[in-house]
Amino acid sequence: MSIFADFDGLALFTRIVEAGGLAAAERATGIPKATLSRRLSALEKTLNVRLVRRTKRGVALTEEGQRLFDRTRLALNLAEEAVAEVQDERVALSGTVRLSLPPDIATAVLAPALIRFKVRHPDVMIEMTLADRRVSLIEEGYDLVVRMGQVADSGLMFKKFASLPRVLVASPDFLAAQMALKEPQDLNEIPALAIRSDLVEWDLRSHDGAAVTVTPRIGFAANRQTILVEAALAGLGVANLPLFMVEAALNSGALVRVMTGWEPSPVEMTALWQKDRFSGRLTKAIVAEFAEALKSV
Q: Where is the HTH lysR-type domain (predicted)?
C-alpha cells in the first residue's frame, strides 16, 4: 500500500473549503489562486477521487470531499494546537497579523495599544485597517476583527473583552430650548444624533432595573462617533455615546447628561478570529493587550 504524503495539499484543501472558493482562499492565505488550483487537482489525482465541483460562486464539496473535509479539519486543528503548545513565546509572537478595527475606538485606544505591543514584540508585522463596515474575516483574509455591538453566531472564535458604558448627552443650550425631559418616551419628540438615520433604537435601563426602548427622531447622522460629539457640542441634538468620548466635555460643562436616572446599554467590544490558525497565540496576546488598554477607559 502506498504511503500518503501530500499533507500540505490536504491542509490547502481545508483552507479552500473554509474560505468558500479559490479566490477567497487566495486572499486568506496569500497563496496564488493558480497554485491553490494546481495543488487541489494534484490532491484529487493522488487520492483518485473528485473532492469538489467548481462553481461560479466558488467550490461545492462532493460527498467524498465532505467526508474528507470533516475529518481533516479536526485533525488539522489538533495539529495546530500541538504546534502552538511547543512554540516558545518568541516564535509564537512573531509573523504577520492583519486586523480590521472600528475607526473611533481604534484611533483613541486600540491603535496606541498596538504600537506599544509592536515595541515589545518587534518580530510581529502588524497590518491594521480601520473600517466601520462588517468585513468578512475569512473572505478578506483578516486574522483578527474587532466589532462593537452584538455579534451573530458565525462559527468563528470570539471573545468579549470589554464593555464600555454609554451616556446620553447634549449641550446646555440645546436642552434649554427643549421641553423638559421627564420620561424616556420624551426622547422620541426631540432631535437626536446617531450613526445611522434608520433602525435606531436606544435601550435604556433605570437605576432600579426598569427597562425601556425608545426610537428617537434622528436629525443628524454620521458614521463617526467623533463627528457626533462635535454635533452634540454644536447643539444639534441628544447623542448616545461611549462615556470615554465625552468625559472631558462633561467635566468642562460643554455637554451635560440627559435623563440622568436612565443609562443606555453599554457597548460590547468583541474580537473574532479563526480557531485553526497558527497565529492563535499571537491573536490572543493582542486581544489581551486590547482588554488591558480598555481598562483605563
A: 1-62
